[in-house]
Amino acid sequence: MNNSPHFAIQVTDLTVAYKEKPVLWDVDLEVPDGILMAIVGPNGAGKTTLIKAILGLIEPAAGQVLIQGAPYKEQRHLVGYVPQRGSVDWDFPTTVIDVVMMGRYGALGWFKRPGKSERRAAMEALAKVGMATFAERQISQLSGGQQQRVFLARALVQDASIYFMDEPFQGVDAVTERAIIVLLQELRASGKTVVVVHHDLQTVPDYFDWVMLINVRRVASGPVQEVFTDENLRLAYGGRVAFLRER
Fold first, then answer.
1. Is the CB of residue 83 less than 8 Å from the CB of residue 170?
2. How far apart are CA 186 and CA 152, in angstroms?
3. Dist CA 107 CA 196 (whole Å)
4. Which of 8, 38, 131, 144 is a plausible cystine mate for 208, CB 3.0–4.6 Å?
5. What is the per-residue pLDDT for 207?
6. Quick one: which of 18, 10, 30 has its CA closest to 59?
7. Which are the contacts of 71, defined by CB distance < 8 A and separation ≥ 6?
8. Residues 7-64: pLDDT tens digits?
9. Which of 27, 43, 40, 51 is nearest to 213 (CA)?
């Protein structure tokens, strides 16, 4: 692989192991700028692990990750991350607006208090996800779909150029799912790169233009119309594919 900066993300020979057992094995991935990409594969395939390894949250056993041609540590300011909703303590006593303003801490540094411009950016992001009227609400009072929208707003105020989202559609209602995909497509239209861990195979062709199929190893990645085939799905899911794709 060359280090051409027109790739938003380059992963080379990435291996991650837990207690000697490989969770990701020798994964290569090149993600061009300005695409909306799904990462799909069966449970235990390493989808979340891949994102966390790219973001430096998990130490790989081997391999290299470049963001816009440079190591992640140097490019952190370019990246926004929406983890799984279940990984957060939603009983923590804080308001919606405060959660969203946390997305600005990377730009501010931890010791500078958010000011009017940060609050304005947070309110604009909440308006984009239809949650402006909930700004002063405690996060514990929100539904699952509302919590997910707040998470997205927090990522939006980072004004990143590359977004990683881990199962943003999980456990949300149809209205929220529609709102989220419209937002992701708007991000792509404005030149952002969006990488989404996704579990619903039926919506992949409708929602995404690129896809990566993974099951510990990379099965295939590229434009949806090229790589989202029955053959590749069988390789990723081990033959249990017919029922997954019925429309």
1. no
2. 13
3. 24
4. 38
5. 97
6. 18
7. 65
8. 999 999 999 998 878 899 999 999 999 999 999 999 999 999 999 999 999 999 999 9
9. 40
Q: Do 238 and 42 form a contact (C-beta atoms < 8 A)?
A: yes
Look up tokens 């700028």; give the residue: 33
**Which token pair is 134?**
């909930």
From 112, 132, 113, 130, select the one nearest 122 (Cα to Cα).
Answer: 132
Starting from the edge strand earliest in sequence, which strands make up the sheet with 36-40, in order?
A: 79-82, 162-166, 193-197, 36-40, 210-215, 217-223
What pLDDT shows up at residue 193?
Answer: 97
Residues 73, 158: contact at Cβ < 8 Å?
no
Kindly write down the DSSP assignment for every residue of 161-190, as one continuous string: SEEEEESTTTT--HHHHHHHHHHHHHHHHT
CB atoms within 10 A of CB 226: 12
Q: Is the pLDDT of residue 111 over 80?
A: no
Check if the beta carbon of residue 159 is closer than 8 Å to that of residue 103: no
Q: Any alpha helices (H) in 47-170, and if so which ranges? A: 47-54, 72-75, 96-101, 105-108, 116-128, 144-156
**Judging by beta carbons within 10 Å of its beta carbon (0-12, 13-18, 19+), is residue 220 exposed, middle or buried?**
middle
In angstroms, the CA 204 to CA 194 distance is 14
